Amino acid sequence: MAKYYLVRGFRVPFFHNNESFGCQFSASNKSKLNNYKKQRIIPPSNYTLIKITPRIEVKIVYCNVDVGFFLLKAPSRREAYFLANAIRGFYGIFYGWLPPSDEDTYFLYEIGKIPQSSWLERDLLDSLWPHYYATDIFVKTSLSSIVVIDNQSLDGLSEFLENIYCHDFIVESMNHLMESRRIYWGHMTPSYYHFHYRRDRPLKKKWEIEKEYLEMRYKYESSFVASFKGIESLLDKNGFKKREIRKLLKWFDCPKISYDEYYLRRHEIFLGLKKKIKYGELIEHFLKIRNVVAAHNNKRPPREFNLSQDNVIEIQLFLQNILTLKLNWLIDRAAYRYGSEAADSGEKPDKRIATDPGPA
To answer: What does pTM read for this prediction?
Structure first.
């Protein structure tokens, strides 16, 4: 029997004529309803964003008239967490909207009933499980610590979930990358990189780089290893050896990624490394660093393996790059398959939009 799960950390507004409403709880429904009535707007109602199987759905549900949440319908807790992690990974990686990290509460709550627009905040809290009155303050606070979703992203999320549902390794990889960025945030816009960072970074003195390493070593290493675990997940092979990389990339099944395809570095070039490098050679480079800083537990690694933010940001960007290429390939392949079937039946093919990889 399918159960329902409420995803914490995101709030889905009610959209009308490109304007958003809601997101905040109030003590009464009456004032909100009167406001909509004055504007001649019909208040929102619950709807299904995507139905993956008869027993697995992602819904948008509203309480307190217009306070929206993601609600998951799933046959098991594991299936629900897979969907929740996919949603968190999608917004965290491709939009840079990391949901609040709060270890005092869960990010996924089982709920006995589908929330209704007539519910107040208290009704929602009473329906969540596990429910302990002693932790009400933490749950209530966490429901207010949110990332507000925009309307256009919902279409991308629906397409994303449809295409990755059978590919759990993608969701695992995305969440490793998201945790890597929680440890060290290496995300920057293209304009900042081109007009500021690439001009300022070469001006750093050697003593500054060494001091940063000594201050940030454990954060750099933890973040780097988390991203490397994302590469392992994406290649579906933990603890791979250097000699296996060519074969793993061949099995990866993505036309734009192979051992001999070239990748352009953007950050390790400031360490004196070449800008143009083969995908396979770059993974070998990351593997060598991972072995030195983690697998071999070097308390004093050689100076050339003293990690900097350049290494960390480079592996994060590289992982995001291959994730995006793989996702686009899955979407394009699905669009081609759908287009062929539609052509046979006389229907017009659905034009799909590839997932936005974000700043490169």
So the answer is: 0.86
